[in-house]
Design a protein that fits this description.
Elements lengths: L2 H6 L6 E4 L5 H11 L3 E6 L22 H4 L3 E5 L5 H12 L3 E4 L5 H4 L4 H7 L4 E6 L14 H7 L20 H24 L4 E5 H6 L5 H8 L16 E5 L5 E5 L3 H10 L14 H6 L1 H12 L4 H11 L3 E3 L3 H6 L1 H5 L3 E6 L3 E6 L23 H8 L4 H10 L3
Parallel strand pairs: 1-2, 1-4, 2-3, 4-5, 5-6
Antiparallel strand pairs: 7-8, 8-9, 10-11
Length: about 400
C-alpha cells in the first residue's frame, strides 16, 4: 500500500451525504470522515447546524464543539424544504455511497427523499437513519432527544447516587451510542454490498443503542426479579473498586477487587493480613463486607497524597488512576506517546487541540485533516463538481436562498 493510500484512510473511496443535525447523525459522519470518507454535510444555508452555536462558552463568538463534530467534512448550504434543494440533493445522492440522516421519521419522505425513491436512482445506496425510537412502532413519531433514549434504554435509572434523582453521565452518551451503532451498521452494509451490489437501510434508535450496552440488566430481572438500582461510584458486590479520598483533597480510583490484586493492595497498605481476613479473603466475602472494606481503604488513602498513592500502587501492580480532567489529559505522557490529542489549524482559533481519530489502525489510521468548516464553505465546489451546477445556476440558487 502506498504512502498516499495510507494517508487518505481506509474509507477514502466513499462519498457520504450527511443530513443530520446536533450530535447523533453528525457524530456518525465524524467517525466515517475521520477514516477518510468524503463527507458532504448539507446544512440549512441560513442557520447551519445548531452545533455551530452550542457550548458553555463561545470563544471569539464561535462554538468550540463545532471544530470537533464538524471536522473532516465539506459544508454545503442547501434548503431541503424547497423543490430546487430536493432536486440537488437527489443529484448528490445519485453518486453517493451513504446518506446519514437524523430527522424525525417521515421528514425525508415528505421531501421526496425516501429510501424507496432514492434507491431507484441509486440501488447501491446505504441510508443510515438515526432517531429516538426507530422508524417503526407506536413511538416512532415522538420527539426523542438523547436524554429520552438514555431514560428509555435504562441508563438514566442506574446512573447517580442511590438517594438522589437519576443523573446525567456528563456527556451526550445516548446520541454518541446511536451514532456509533449507525457507523457500525454502515460498515456492515458496505460489506453486504460488496457481495450483492445492493444497499439497505440502517435503522438506529437511540433507546436501542443505549439498551445494547446495558449488560445483563434485563436478563437478570427476567431470571431473578432483581431490578438494578443506582449505586453511585461503586459496583455492588465488587470490592474494593471505588473512588477514595487523598490527603491533598483529590480523589483516586482503585480497582483492587481480584483476589491476587487485593493481596497486592493489602501489601501496599502495609496490612498484608487483610488478604487472609475471613471478611475479605475472597471475592464473595469482600462483596458482602464492601462498605467496611471501603472504609479501611479510604482511611489509608486519606493519609497520603494522590501522587504518593499512584507511585506506590503502580509499583505493586494495583490498578489506580487520578480522575482525569482536560488539563490532566494535555499533560499526560501516555496521551502524548499515542497522540491521543492532536492539534489542527483553525481559521479563527489558530491552533486548536482535540481528540484524535480512534481506534488506532496499523496500516490505514484515521486522522484529523481539518476542523469543522465555515457554513457553506464548500457549496460551490461540491455542487459544481457533483450536481453539474454552472456559475449561473449557482448564482440563481443563491438569489432564491436555496443555497
Amino acid at each position: 500500500m502506498s504512502d498516499t493510500e495510507t494517508a487518505r484512510g481506509p474509507l477514502a473511496d466513499l462519498v457520504i451525504i450527511e443530513m443530520g443535525t446536533l450530535i447523533a447523525g453528525p457524530f456518525c459522519g465524524q467517525i466515517l470522515g475521520d477514516f477518510g470518507a468524503e463527507v458532504i454535510k448539507i446544512e440549512d444555508p441560513k442557520t447551519g447546524d445548531p452545533m455551530r452555536q452550542w457550548g458553555r462558552s463561545l470563544p471569539k463568538g464561535l462554538s468550540p464543539w463545532w471544530p470537533v463534530i464538524g471536522r473532516n467534512k465539506k459544508s454545503v448550504g442547501l434548503d431541503l424544504r424547497t423543490p430546487e434543494g430536493q432536486e440537488i440533493a437527489r443529484a448528490l445522492i445519485a453518486q453517493a455511497d451513504v446518506v446519514i440522516e437524523n430527522f424525525r421519521p417521515g421528514a425525508m419522505e415528505k421531501w421526496g427523499l425516501s429510501y424507496e425513491a432514492l434507491s431507484k436512482i441509486n440501488p447501491r445506496l446505504i441510508m443510515a437513519r438515526v432517531s429516538g425510537f426507530g422508524q417503526t412502532g407506536p413511538y416512532s413519531q415522538r420527539a426523542g432527544y438523547g436524554l429520552i433514549g438514555e431514560a428509555m434504554g435504562g441508563l438514566r435509572y442506574v446512573t447517580g447516587e442511590p438517594d438522589r434523582p437519576p443523573a446525567r453521565a456528563g456527556i451526550s452518551i445516548g446520541d454518541s451510542l446511536a451514532a456509533m451503532h449507525a457507523a457500525m451498521g454502515v460498515l456492515m452494509a458496505l460489506h453486504h454490498r460488496e457481495r450483492t451490489g445492493l444497499g439497505q437501510v440502517i435503522d438506529a434508535a437511540l433507546y436501542e443503542s443505549v439498551l445494547a450496552v446495558m449488560e445483563n440488566l434485563v436478563t437478570e430481572y427476567d431470571l431473578t426479579g432483581y431490578v438494578r438500582e443506582r449505586s453511585g461510584s461503586i459496583l455492588p458486590g465488587i470490592a474494593p473498586s471505588n473512588a477514595y479520598p487523598c490527603a491533598n483533597g483529590e480523589m483516586i480510583l482503585i480497582g483492587g477487587n481480584g483476589d491476587t490484586v487485593f493481596a497486592r493492595l493489602a501489601e501496599a497498605m502495609g496490612r498484608p493480613e487483610l488478604a487472609a481476613d475471613p471478611r475479605f479473603r475472597d471475592h464473595a466475602s469482600r462483596g458482602q463486607n464492601q462498605a467496611e472494606l471501603d472504609g479501611i481503604v479510604a482511611g489509608w488513602t486519606g493519609e497520603r497524597t494522590l501522587d504518593e498513592l499512584l507511585t506506590l500502587l503502580e509499583a505493586k501492580g494495583v490498578p489506580a488512576s487520578r480522575v482525569y480532567r482536560a488539563p490532566d489529559m494535555l499533560e499526560d505522557p501516555q496521551y502524548a506517546a499515542r497522540e491521543a490529542i492532536v492539534e489542527t489549524d483553525h481559521p479563527v482559533f489558530g491552533r486548536v487541540k482535540m481528540q484524535n481519530a480512534f481506534p488506532k489502525m496499523s496500516a490505514t489510521p484515521g486522522r484529523v485533516r481539518w476542523p469543522g468548516p465555515a457554513l457553506g464553505q464548500h457549496t460551490d465546489e461540491v455542487l459544481a463538481a457533483r450536481a453539474g451546477c454552472s456559475d449561473g445556476r449557482l448564482a440563481a440558487l443563491r438569489a432564491k436562498g436555496v443555497i
